[in-house]
Every structure is written in C-alpha cells, then in structure tokens.
Design goal:
There is one protein chain. The chain has no helices and twelve strands. By secondary structure, it is an all-beta fold. The chain has a single domain, classed as Jelly Rolls (Sandwich), CATH 2.60.120.10. The protein starts with a strand and ends in a 10-residue tail after the last strand.
Length: 143
C-alpha cells in the first residue's frame, strides 16, 4: 500500500427487501471529521482527474457500478514517491472504503457498465480553492 492510502472493509447486510451497505461511522479508522458527503457519477470508459486535495482526507465508497481509482505520490518526503497505486471498488466484488490523505494525486476511471457512482465523505464543506488540478496528460499513466 502507498503511504497515506488505506482500505477498510465495509459491511454488506443482505435483507430480503433490499440490502444495506454501510459507509462510515465516526468511530472508524480514517474518519477525519464531517463537513460534507457528496456523490459523483462516472460513465463507463471515462476518466476524471488529476486532482490533489491539500487539506482534506478523502473517504471514498462505490455503492453503484465499478470504479478504478489511480493514486500518484509526488510528495518529496514520502517513502512511496513516484509510485502509483490502483484500487478497484465495487459493491459486488470489493466493497470497501478507500481513505486517501491530503497531498496525493488521484484520478478515477469508470469500469462498470453504464454509469457508476462514488460517494466521498470529507471533513469540511467543499472549497474549490482547497484542491489542485492537472490535466490527465501531465502525469504519465495509461488508463
């Protein structure tokens, strides 16, 4: 695992009239406070990114479809500097919460057929000035 990236197994409870999928409790490892929870969709074969949060810890869950997250570490003092990590999340095959600390670049790819959806739980309300962005071509990675 990349320094600052962790995976947390989540409960999936099968219920006859509709399943329950846990996301996060305030007592869970990786919880950094609550400011906002939001959903983002991504179509099959599309890529969103590169984005780096400078203050916020991300807690990402995929309740619908299948999403591949690609994380790149360019932090000067990191043991994993220059490395990539891929994590594929899906409620059917890998239902976990992905926690990413500030300072790491991330992009994500829609692997599921049709539209996939992720949920992100962040410790403060969204602030567009808090994150840095780069064009996909600026970090060499073959999606």
């Amino acid at each position: 695992m990349m320094e600052g990236v962790t995976l947390h197994p989540l409960k999936h409870i099968i219920v006859p009239k509709g399943d329950i999928y846990h996301a996060m409790k305030s007592t869970d490892e990786g919880y950094a406070g609550f400011g906002e929870a939001y959903f983002s969709q991504i179509a099959h074969g599309e890529v969103k990114g590169w984005k780096r949060h400078n203050r916020m810890t991300l807690n990402l869950i995929v309740p619908v479809g299948k999403v591949r997250f690609v994380i790149y570490d360019d932090r000067e003092d990191s043991l994993t500097r220059g490395q990539f990590q891929e994590v594929v999340l899906s409620p059917e095959s890998n239902y976990q919460r992905l926690t990413v600390v500030p300072g790491l670049w991330m992009a994500f790819y829609g692997e599921g057929e049709g539209m996939s959806m992720l949920m992100d739980i962040i410790p403060e309300p969204h602030d567009p000035l808090e994150a840095s962005r780069m064009d996909l071509s600026e970090i060499a990675y073959n999606f």
